[in-house]
Design a protein that fits this description.
Number of helices: 1
Radius of gyration: 28 Å
Helix content: over 70%
Strand content: under 5%
Distance between the termini: 97 Å
Number of strands: 0
Number of domains: 1
Length: 65
């Protein structure tokens, strides 16, 4: 009986260790995705400002009479 409990304890320990590894990997993935999202948002804002600057540079002289 004691042998079975020790085996059960070992299996339980392995399961918990595996869960903790998966949990840590999942958290690292979420952090990386959040950072990627920030980069994409900043690039989109920069693109919007850059396009606006180009429109002003190329369209403004045409508007002047």
């Amino acid at each position: 009986m004691r042998k079975w409990y020790l085996e059960l304890h070992d299996v339980n320990t392995d399961l918990i260790r595996g869960y903790n590894i998966r949990c840590k990997n999942h958290q690292e993935l979420l952090d990386a995705l959040k950072q990627l999202n920030v980069v994409i948002q900043k690039a989109a804002q920069l693109r919007g400002k850059y396009c606006l600057c180009l429109r002003v540079q190329f369209c403004a002289p045409k508007l002047c009479f």
